[in-house]
Amino acid sequence: MAECHPVGFQWVMEAKARGATLIHVDPRFTRTSALADVYVPLRAGSDIAFLGGIVRYVIEHEKYFRDYVLAYTNAATIVTEEFRDTEDLDGVFSGLDPETRTYDFATWRYEGTRVPPGPAGEQDQDREDRDSRFEAAATRKAARGEAHGAGGADVPGRARTDETLRHPRCVLQIVRRHFSRYTPEMVEEICGVPRATFLRVCELITSNSGRDRTTAFAYAVGWTQHTVGVQYIRTASILQSLLGNIGRPGGGILALRGHASIQGSTDIPTLFNLLPGYIPMPHALASRDLETFLRAEGTAKGYWGDMRSYVVSLLKAWWGDAADESTDFCFDHLPRLTGSHGTYDTVLAQLHGVCKGYFLMGENPAVGSINARLQRLGMANLDWLVVRDFSLIESATWWKDGPEIETGELRTEDIGTEVFFLPAAAHTEKSGSFTNTQRLLQWHGQAVEPAGDTRSDLWFTYHLGRRIREKLADAGYRARMNLDEDERAVDRDRPVLDLTWDYPTEGVQDEPEAEAVLAEINGRDAEGWPLSSYEQLAGDGSTTCGCWIYCGVHADGVNQADRRKPGQEQDWVAPEWGWAWPANRRILYNRASADPEGRPWSERKALLRWDAERRRWTGPDVPDFPATRPPDFRPGPDATGPDALAGDDPFIMQADGKAWLYAPAGVVDGPLPTHYEPQESPFTNALYGQQRNPVRQILDGDPEYLHPSDGDPGAEVFPYVTTTYRLTEHHTAGGMSRWLPYLSELQPEFFCEVSPELARERGLEHLGWATIISARNAIEARVLVTDRVPPIDVRGRRLHQIGLPYHWGPNGYSTGDAANELLHLVLDPNTHIQEAKALTVDIRPGRRPRGPALLALVSDYRRRAGITEQTGREM
Amino acid sequence: MTVSDHDPAAVFGHDPAAVFGHDPAAGAGYVPGHPPRMGFFTDTSVCIGCKACEVACKEWNAIPEDGLVLTGMSYDNSVRLSADTWRHVAFVEQRRPPVPWGPGGDGRDEPTDVDVLAVAALPTDTPGEWPGAATVTVPPDGPGAPGELRWLMASDVCKHCTHAACLDVCPTGSLFRTEFGTVVVQEDICNGCGYCVPACPYGVIDQRKGDGRAWKCTLCYDRIGDGLMPACAQACPTESIQYGPLDELRQRADARVERLRDAGVPEARLYGDSPDDGVGGAGAFFLLLDEPEVYGLPPDPVVTTRDLPDMWRHVAMAAGGLVGATALACLTGRRGRRP
Amino acid sequence: MGLPRWIRSWPVYRQLTGSDPAGLGKAVRSPRTEALRPRVSTADKVVKSVCPYCAVGCGQNVYVRDGKVTQIEGDPDSPISRGRLCPKGSATLQLTTGPARMSTVLYRRPYAVDWEPLDLDTAMDMIADRVISARLHGWQWEDEHGARVRRTLGVASLGGATLDNEENYLIKKLFTSLGAVQIENQARI
């Protein structure tokens, strides 16, 4: 956190100054470790074993917050008899279909509930044929789990519970058995963390949790970029739920995100699987019409029960008058998914000649995406490419000076890709809002006009859309371009032509007014007045709203994201600075800060309380709960949506109002986190016969090579583990830092970090060069010999880890090879995110070969390791 | 000998406080009622090595880039204070021999630092075990405890000395004492003679290549004159760099040292805080967690003009220099600069 | 009075007649020094902004004079950052006003070995044409199982995550209406 979010780290330092203990767990000793009270180096890729060990400690020593756990989690809920744990099946759960490599959730459900309909649920019982099985698998592969963004899948029906927590099939007992072998000894064996250190961490965390104290977890992509990334976060969720650390001040699991509006870009997603506000993109198999879609994706209880209002209001915002009852609100205007269309699938679609045109807006995949060579080869197969950025990043110039030109794999004169480079405006040259890592929208005003041809992406997208719409509406153009050959051409172009696209523009460059777009996102009632809450949204077409969770950001016609009452004039919650979704709530699930009766768990950790006189929840934060619903409220048997939430159901986005220690549906790789080795690992799985996540995503048609893991012949050719990361002085793929002298001089070159022992083992010299090799590519880096990347003893062997900051590429002021050249495309099956944090490599002294010799080196390594197209792809 | 037990009489032959008091601005002609002496207290115990100070300083003062050199000195690639680096963050990786954590191995005896980079430089075929070439063990007491890696970070800056040799030797009046007691180069006066460079006991002031003039931290004289914080102090995420009236900073620093020592950090000490040290106390002083040399700071800095027999000769010299320089300015209209 | 102004401003005169006989401070202040004002105090306007790098969301003040950004620094009012910035945030002035910024459109023809200039208006028109054709090329009414998909796989987009919400909203809205599904951003990476 000190390394990548230094200004956020000031609050950690404040906490430290007030006596907080800071524990840092990381394979490398960073600037955060330097300030930590306890630093725990562990083997990259072993965190589930570490966290699972703490879960075991908490349960075995009965350190969980019993009242919280009983009232607010699903610990007491009983699971169906058919469920089989990884303990029973040597590392896989019941429901695994080895052929499609997907899980059927049916056996994971609560006893007494049905499997939810639709893509997240069971297969269609009437269609037991092979096709339907594959189709169901395909829907699960379409990142459905992520679509639940702010909540879990539906659990229709009434689950049985055992409040004594003794029933062998109650969730707490299942969790206990699942983690029973994650002992301190096992943690030491898998993670390389000495038992004493591990136990000290357990003691620190448990003694700092409960009624009077809370512990927070902060993480970043060190947890997400794994083939089991979602399950890393799930393990932390289980732990924090057991300890009663969610929805309370000083608690939580805090994602430290790395880009100014990366939270915003998932809320209003430029993501294939989502519509604004975490509404899933319709899937071809479960979304014939709006009703089917809502039945499949909504939940009976909680705020997802109102999904119809959110979806219809969105369709109204996009297609205006064309969206009404008679047109099914233009639901059919939405394209349908049939599987994963993530960014790595797109690269393969480029290589296969399906995807012909590509927009890169402020993104540099030639450096920043894994297997960077494959990214460039994909772009070399396009008809056209549009790059919008500040400078000539590698993704704009690979056709003339990219690494493949040097190796001879590509020849500039043979590359047919037409490339447009359009200079982009900076945040000082346009108005708009960023959503930061704590869900806070903050407005930035335009300070100056962009110079020359530089324009905002708002300008670009608006005017591109305007031109496309004009062309599609022009009969002459249609004839010239043969657009009407298909008899359904009108139907095909209807969604574009029906689109509401009439934003006011301003200034000499006809810049669309960003605040007008924000007003559309916020939504309007039937009279056109701005809405102030998503609770006002209607499913009958009388309201519009571009993103239901952002409803209220333009309440009263005022740009709430631009509120800037100085922090020093406000209390610690500072509710009048910017605007947080939803409804300006700053701590999510904050109903859990009070006990079931509505009293704070302790005065020290008070946030909300039920004011019986005023009959409402009060406190410094906006309640993340129906504001006037009393603690003793019990819904009627037929209640649905938010009305079905009891007065003590704090987890209002969950179908049962509870925090899930066990996920009965929705997480595609298991109801509980399980330690699996990374795709490429120098160790066999010490816990199970199943080596890797059995349902990790391996893309169809992926042309790259994978390494053998421990136990397979050739594994020794790639004996070291590497992990990639950022440095304080640079930003991601470098587009906003490597061109700046003031940042470049602080970290002027790509380097690798190795321990003195590894340096000796491989003859690496401090400040000399090293070549790092995987089956995908080889790169060179200057060598920093340091104790900050300590060797780790794992299962009786000493493991060396190599640190690789991934900021560099051949362009810019500070240059170097891109670490992402080495990485592979095997992904987390829930999020389709790559495993950038743990893979195997070899390292040797000296610079890498130039030209075709580079390819020969990599292919020689593949040959020595006996790698074939099948290597590493077994389940 | 530590910084604070210097005998000032040995340096000046008399008590420096008697010459200037603790108010160097008064000694530079500012009448009573001038602002209090302002300075920096850099608390390295909370420095996270982010280098925001370096960049904020450069952006505010439009300082040229200082060259792209991977030094291998941990994460320090700006090396030292110079004409083009007015804030410099030092990174020191320290390792003590690993000790087994467990029964019988409390690891508390004879912690000896191992120079990681020296070890790295050994030929790869060096026989036998290297000193401490083993995994970092994690003792129960956190960073700094024996057997563990310690990564010290510290942001260095011009000390704005009470007795500023650079100022004493400047023949043009380019270097001057401000009403805040700080020492500043006037870029429209400096003729690039370079006398100040060897005069500085800390090696701070430096001539810019291709320009010749001397440059260093101004303690953001333009900003503080308008009641603003210096750029580095404003940017510093963890308040490692604190700006304020020097008296107040010294009190704050004393309290901080005491608190750290109470919390089991006996090595916490102040550097440059004492008016009795070789430069009469620094306007920018530091809380360190090790000996000054570890951070590249001189252990006993002494104002280099201490041997001048008496102050009047010094004054005469300065005045003479001024006459000469000013006469030259009148003749040429603009002082020549060294290439 | 009496003495010419230039003599009175002569440092030696000030040194010999004033309170700073040693010429260490007051007497030697130069005209530039006397006139020194911080450029943040002489700005025409201060625009409230947010740091464009990571997601902490530090407040920034953008100072503008004569239509140019002259300084960007932390906003002390922000309850998130309290006026502080990291090295990247502190480099925002160089990011936005530095010479590395491109300001003209560049175009590379198929098989060409170098860039050529292109007018922005022409570029926009060409891109619109290409979107229309690539969309058509990759158009699908049904998938291989006959399910209605009504989409194109011909056009894809990958965005950074330092874009504004309003920008992302228009991108998602336009591209979805075109039938594109391969719309992605840094959040997946």
From TrEMBL, chain C:
Organism's domain of life?
Bacteria
Going by the UniProt record, its keywords in alphabetical order are: 4Fe-4S, Iron, Iron-sulfur, Metal-binding, Oxidoreductase
Q: Where is the signal peptide?
A: none
Cross-referenced InterPro entries: Mopterin_OxRdtase_4Fe-4S_dom
> Where does it primarily localize?
other
Statement: the UniProt record of this protein carries the keyword 4Fe-4S: yes
Q: Which cofactor does it need?
A: [4Fe-4S] cluster
Give the family per the record.
Belongs to the prokaryotic molybdopterin-containing oxidoreductase family.
Query: Which protein, by its recorded name, is this?
Result: Dehydrogenase
Q: What is the lineage of its organism?
A: Bacteria, Bacillati, Actinomycetota, Actinomycetes, Streptosporangiales
